[in-house]
Each structure stands twice: as C-alpha cells, then as structure tokens.
Amino acid sequence: MQIRREKRARLLADGREPYPVRVGRTHSLADVRGRWGHLEAGEETQDVVTVTGRVVFVRNTGKLCFATLQDGFSPDRASERLQVMLSLAEVGETELAAWKADVDLGDHVAVTGRVIVSRRGELSVMASEWRMASKALRPMPNLHSEMSEEARVRQRYADMTVRSDAREMVRTRAAITRSIRETLHADGYLEIETPVLQLIHGGAAARPFGTHLNAFDIPMTLRIALELFLKRAMVGGADRVYEMGRIFRNEGIDSSHAPEFTMLEAYQSWGDQKSIAALTQKIIVDVADQLGSRRVQVGEHTIDLDGEWTWLSVYPAVSEAVGEEITPDTPMTRLVEIAAKHDLEVDPKWSDGKLVIELFELLVEPGLVQPTFVCDYPAIAQPLARRSDRDPRLIEAWDLIIAGMERATGFSELIDPVIQREVLVEQSLAAAAGDPEAMQLDEDFLNALEFGAPPMGGMGLGVDRLVMLFTGVGIRETILFPLLKPL
Asked: Where found, per UniProt (predicted)?
C-alpha cells in the first residue's frame, strides 16, 4: 500500500491526474467483442477505440507489455475481459516506461488504440496511448487462490472483482426481483411503500430491534413485517397491493436466517388462501422461466416446479410420521409422550397446537422436497389468519415448503375487527408476560379494520430464500452486504 501511495503522489507531482473525471471512453469491452470478435488470428484494423477497465492481469516483457482489462456488469450482460497491448513502437519509450512504473493490478485505466487480433488469436487493443483512470491503493485478492468465505462476505467488493460467481449472484438476484415485480404488475398489483420505523411492531411473531426517535423523544422499533400497513391500504380501497422491502428481526443468525432480510408481501381483495397460493406459484415459476429452467438442483435433489403443487394438512402428516392418529383433540399428555419418543424437548409454556407444529417441523418438514403447500395449521401458528369454517381450531393458512425449507406463507386473511382485537389482546398479554416475540396491541390498525376491509388473501415470501433455492447457496451469499459480527 505504501508503494501504491507513492505512485499516486508521483502521478500528481508529474501532473498526471490519478482520478480524472473523464477519460473519453468510446466503447465498452463488450462492444469491442461484439463488433470485432469475428476477426482472425493476426488480423489488424485501423479502427481506433478507447476502452476502460480494471487491470486484472499484467505482463511487462521488455518492449511489449500485455494486460487484461475487466469492465463492469449490468442486468443484460456479465463482466467482459479484453486484452490490451502496449509496444514501444506504438506508445513510445516514455509512455511505456510510465506504464511499467505506475500501473498495478486493480488499477482502472483507459487505453486508446487500434483493434487487432494477436498472433495467438486474442482480440486486443494495440495501444497508442493510455491514461490512469483510478489508482487502486489496496492490492486485489489473488485471482488464482480462493478467498475464505468469511473474507468474501466481509469484503464483497473485493470478492466481486476477482470472482465471476460473486458478480453473477448480484445479476441473478436482480433478475429474480425484477421478475417478481413484472409478474405482480401484470396481475394488477400496486407497489407501495410502508414505514420501516414503527411505533408498534406487529404482523408477525418475532423479536424486534428497538430504537429511539429523538424528535418526539419516544421509543420505536424497526418493522418485523409489512402486513399491517399494507392491510390499511386495502381498507382504503387498493384492490391489490404489494411491497418488497427490508425486514428486521432481532433473532438468531444461521445459514437460513439473517437479522436483516428482504420480504415480499402481497394482498388481493376478494381472494383467499387458494388464490394467493396460485399467485405465489406463478411468481416462482416465472422466476424459473426467467432463469432458464423449471427444474432446480438443490444438493442431491432435483426440484420440479412444473405442474400441480401438493397440498398437505398438518395433522394427517404428523399422524403418518408418528404412526398414530393425531387430531386437535389429542390430549397434551399424549403429545408430550410422542415428543419424548422422538427426542423433542418440550417447553412447558407450549400449547398442544404449538407442540404439534414442532413435531411437524421435526418429523415432516425436512422430507418435503418438492413444492408443498402445508395447510390446516393449529390456530396458534398465525394469529392474523382466518379461522377455518370446518374447524375453528384450525386456520386457513399455508406454508410453502420446497427442499425442506419454508419459502413463503399465505392466508385467508382475518378481517373481522372484533375477533382481530381479541387475538391482539391475547398477544399483548403474552408480550406483557415476557414473550419477546408476541405482537403488541395496535389500536390504529384495529381502527382501520373497523372501517371495513374486503375479504382478501395475503402472502409473504422470503426473497433471500427464493434466491437460495435457485442458486444453492446460504443466505449470507445471497445478501450482497450481510450483517456480520465485527472483527
């Protein structure tokens, strides 16, 4: 770094700007490949271009120097690389010496010259002049040695300079979020934005991050869900709404959980759990089509996103897993015995419904490889979902499990303000009793419901987990700049 700083100082002393505003680029590296890529080995043109890029390879050999430039990437193209050549005959002794003295790996440079193909068949620009575009003061990672995962995540910008997979992840995620928006827009959904800072956290069972608003001198939280404000918009007359935004939950961090992540939530008037499930399936299938295949490899499993997706009820699934019939009437004592048999530690605070959910997650969920809408949950699973008309102890809600992991959840929404108040009062009492994940009583949301909301279906989809599905990596790799423990 000291040597690079000395080079920067020398450039300034010699009147050569190390960070100019403009360098006069005429063609991207991709443009050059697209227009002159057909040339044969040894063929030369008189076409002069000015190209720019980061120096990712350099070989200085006497009177002829070679370098490889790498440019940026965009939604419609990956990073391109192109060779540049500097010869004594073309640039002169002074400029060739300056190149050898001043240019390091990682620098951005501008090179002007003729488009040619080397004798070895490499499309190149034979320089007539060059200019420093941005002097790098830190060395690049070694192109030929793997950065550790920790180093890659901590210095994603460095990772992206040397690893095409890192750059491709950014493009893939952008393609996925663009596809989601295009699907929703085509289906008549209105994208809106809701507050990140909230007086009362709600919409999910999760522990919030606390903060403080100095202007009002009041405590606030970062949102744990998008739901309650999107439903307010539905009360106001929006027919179909969605938001794709950051969610913050002050909970554990592992390969599938991050404290800051991206959630899609969508609500459709006059819909229910079935219609919102159809939308969710279409969103995911459209993403698969955007990426090129409806068959996705996850470890040793091939996930087939085509055709009908399975619906699976919780209680029959648990019954099959434990070898006896389990229903909402099964006594808690028997459920505890079954849990002990399967080495599931039971929290004394759990209800029978909670214990059934835990048994399902332990015994059934890991084996659900193909897309499965898990439905007929006990009511405790989703306090904001509508109770089932068949059995009020169950709810009209589903979790979408693909490759053993929850990817989305959906409901027939609870719109009865009286029942909703009862549910939130129960939640607030649990919060007062010390449950850090219980929701608080949100009077403004209840006021909104009392104006009358249309029947609706609603869904939430973890965008990061969707990216994980299509890329086969952990959540830290899908988030460009994840939160990390300080060094």
From this structure: Cytoplasm
9 — phi, psi (to 5°)?
-60, -40
Alpha helix positions (H), 214-293: 227-235, 273-291
What span, in angstroms and rounded, lies between the C-alpha atoms of 106 and 158?
A: 10
Neighbours of 470 (CB within 10 A): 24
Are 470 and 174 contacting, i.e. CB atoms less than 8 angstroms apart?
no
Q: Which residues pair with 83 in a beta bridge?
A: 68, 124
243 is in an annotated binding site: no
Query: Under CATH, which architecture does the 162-309+370-478 domain have?
Result: 2-Layer Sandwich (3.30)
Architecture of the domain made up of 2-140: Beta Barrel (2.40)
- Residue-wise pLDDT for 413-439, tens only, equals 999 999 999 888 988 888 888 888 777
Q: How far apart are CA 206 and CA 209, in angstroms?
A: 10
Q: Are 56 and 79 in contact (CB under 8 A)?
A: no
Q: What are the C-alpha distances in Å from 373 to residues 86, 311, 423, 454?
A: 61, 5, 25, 24
The Cα 451–Cα 415 span in angstroms is 10
pLDDT (tens digit, 9 = 90+) per residue, 139-166?
988 766 667 778 888 889 999 998 899 9
* Every domain of the chain and the residues it spans: 2-140, 162-309+370-478
Rounded to a whole number of angstroms, the distance between the first and last alpha carbons of the chain is 21
- Of the CA atoms within 13 Å of residue 78, those in its CB half-sphere come to 11
Which residue ranges in the chain fall short of pLDDT 50? none
Residue with tokens 């300056």: 98
Q: What is the pTM of this model?
A: 0.91
On whether 399 is known to bind a ligand per the annotation, the reply is: yes
